[in-house]
Design brief:
Length: 134
């Protein structure tokens, strides 16, 4: 698979990549992941880690109670995580994300390069996403 937007656009399956990108951006917009604002900022981070002792206790208790110990994943956890109001996370518009002239006029700019995305929720790839989800 391509590692970035440019590689995806050079790939023989570029039309499929474009469609997948459009669908992902649409899902993020429907989820209320960001709003458009000027500026860029980047601060708080967190990574949830289970220490060895806690993991062993969970395994012992599950054995005693005869309940299978399982691990799992929460689909879309990061993009569903709400952020604290005082935390401001802004992103530069990603390569490949386009806006109509009407959308640009609505926020009072002429080009997408005058915009940044103010995130309202977590997003994959951000240092802050693990902290927000917890």
């Amino acid at each position: 698979d391509p590692k970035n937007f440019r590689e995806a656009m050079r790939d023989p399956r570029s039309e499929k990549w474009k469609q997948a990108i459009r669908e992902e951006i649409e899902a993020l917009e429907q989820n209320g992941t960001w709003k458009q604002e000027y500026g860029v900022d980047y601060t708080y981070t967190f990574s949830a880690v289970l220490d060895m002792e806690s993991g062993k206790i969970i395994l012992v208790v599950s054995h005693i109670w005869k309940v299978p110990a399982r691990h799992g994943d929460v689909p879309g956890a990061y993009v569903k995580a709400k952020k604290e109001e005082e935390l401001v996370i802004m992103l530069v518009i990603p390569t490949g994300m386009e806006f109509t002239e009407e959308q640009l006029r609505a926020v009072g700019v002429k080009t997408k390069y005058e915009l940044a995305l103010l995130l309202e929720k977590g997003l994959y790839g951000l240092k802050q996403s693990g902290r927000l989800w917890n």
